[in-house]
User: Fold WD repeat-containing protein 70 from Moschus moschiferus.
Amino acid sequence: MFEQTRRTAVERSRKTLEAREREEEMNREKELRRQNEDLEPTSSGSNVARACSKSSSRDTSSSGSDESSDSSDDELIGPPLPLKMVEEPVNPMEEGVLGPLPPPLAEDVEEDDDDDGDSEEEEVSALGLDPSGARLVTGGYDYDVKFWDFAGMDASFKAFRSLQPCECHQIKSLQYSNTGDMILVVSGSSQAKVIDRDGFEVMECIKGDQYIVDMANTKGHTAMLHTGSWHPKIKGEFMTCSNDATVRTWEVENPKKQKSVFKPRTMQGKKVIPTTCMYSRDGNLIAAACQNGSIQIWDRNLTVHPKFHYKQAHDPGTDTSCVTFSYDGTVLASRGGDDTLKLWDIRQFNKPLFSASGLPTMFPMTDCCFSPDDKLIVTGTSVQRGCGSGKLVFFERRTFQRVYEIDITDASVVRCLWHPKLNQIMVGTGNGLAKVYYDPNKSQRGAKLCVVKTQRKAKQAETLTQDYIITPHALPMFREPRQRSTRKQLEKDRLDPLKSHKPEPPVAGPGRGGRVGTHGGTLSSYIVKNIALDKTDDSNPREAILRHAKAAEDNPYWVSPAYSKTQPKTMFAQVESDDEETKNEPEWKKRKI
Assistant:
């Protein structure tokens, strides 16, 4: 099914390009015809001269004689030759993998839909493409990460999802894993994140203790990150570099602590900050470029001393923005902040193989990459605002000659990515544009799937509202009320005495006007009324008991039947005074005055 879709897309692209070529040919013929009409002579002498000139030029071209033999041939007489008859210069890129990249074949994917100006705050600072080439992810200084689907896009080139995974931190690097199911997000914070293909968070690296001197004893980075990279062979392993002068490797299954720590050092043993890092193609080497201009390469299993160390690869104090390995794993390319691009041989890491200067860069993430066949190296250049256009420059790896360059836009070229399967180049610029360059014959899928699709028209929504029938001569009982505005409806309600009647407030204090005063309106009055009641009992308990004496004597039930035989006559104890009680008490119980 996917193969059939691809074939259909390729056929559509071919038909579209043929139609464009036919239209351009017709336009050129019309232009030539118009020029012929403008140059039509008014005298017969000029006609003869033009005819002679045409015949002589035809004879000269057929016989192959030298044009310098006749001085009249040097003058331009008559209309210019058609473009097909003019001999075109040979493009050095025609022998490459991608072939010539004419600007009309470049499709723009706008990162910012509102402003296309050259604003560094909206630059595309990160690009990532999954291994299959189906989805493109971009990030910028506006904190947004946007997802683009080539198969689902049309000619409008709109992202299908946008999110801010790192809140208010600038996105510095985005990279798909080797399986394409996860994306490594490196921002300006000290904690890298891993999200899935749909943008949901998978893990977040832990932050280290910034008060520990030895960075190897912390569990994570303590300063701003620069970049990150996935391991090309091991699933779930990646590395990051930071301003805390460390390069750390991580595992997705263990976000609470890093796996290993590499500490770049100068020749004197001092700390140095790595600005970029990259795995080799087989994953056995880790390369990092530092702020002192050095490039250090470690064995992945040995974290103490670097395997290769070149201390003056680039100018000290500049930020080397990119290091990348060739597909054969023997050559390393470095893009320096000193406006140079250098090529290194890993087997003889004592001097650069080639060096190209005059490549200005103003961003700490300017890329360089190899072509899929390892024959070309491509990088971007930066320009000041209003001082030209950024370029994509191609160098031949064998001779390191500048063989081709493309004017991208009137802004800097920040990111570039050459996908090996699609054979297409993705470019991120400083004015918020992401461009895709492809060849209609040598490229596969990618932008070719969406460029042939027409832009979807906006769907028109229709609603049916209730119609009001106005009949002035109908009876009032059948007349429907007219629709009024909210303000007029409120004004009408104010005229109604029932709707505008204000409720009378409760009576405070004693009652008046036929209304009883309220009690317990406050908390204190409620407590006085219901809780703090007067419970004084002035009744005589003896009289209360003697009220039942006659009934108890006539109908004894409790005490009298029990003593009817042993003590028929009731006898009560004699009342003793308090003085007698105190006399009978022992001395130790008597009160002492």
User: Anything to note?
Assistant: Residues 93-451 form a domain with the Methylamine Dehydrogenase; Chain H fold (CATH 2.130.10.10). The longest helix spans residues 2-38. Helices lie at 2-38, 44-63, 447-451, 486-495, 523-530, 541-546, 549-554, 578-584. The chain has two domains: 2-61, 93-451.
